[in-house]
Amino acid sequence: MEATPYGVVHFFPGGTKDQYEASIAVTHPGEGRLPDGQIFHAGGASAGGWTIIGVHESKESWEKFRDSILLPRMQQGIEGGFASPPEETVIDLYKIIR
To answer: In the chain, where are the structural domains located?
Structure first.
């Protein structure tokens, strides 16, 4: 079975651009670079907080990033980063148009 793209939407109630910048600096490999397996990333202000959208090559690539990088670093605490875990929505993507 071929891997299908997997989308993750994180909403941080009360989240800010500064918290996002602090968090992304610690969880991503560098400015303008995506973690292995991630094919799209977007973040921005939304009603009541901050929303991040990530698309990964597969559910497995998301879980690898989440379990080996994202969660451990967030659980350690990121100075100036998001203060609480996000509300999360996952999407088994059917189609990506580029």
So the answer is: 1-6+21-30+57-79
CA 44 – CA 9 distance, rounded (Å):
12
Cα separations (Å) of 98 from 2, 21, 95? 19, 26, 10
Distance CA 93, CA 98 (A): 14
Residues 6+ apart with CB under 8 A from 76: none
pLDDT digits (tens, 9 = 90+) for 47-67: 999 999 999 999 999 999 999
- Predicted structure pTM score: 0.92
Helix residue ranges per DSSP H, 4-82: 17-27, 59-65, 71-76
Residue 53 identity (one-letter amino acid): I
Cα diameter, the chain: 42
β-partners of residue 13 are 49
How does pLDDT run across 78-89, given as a tens digit for each residue?
Answer: 999 998 899 999
Q: What is the pLDDT of residue 1?
A: 60
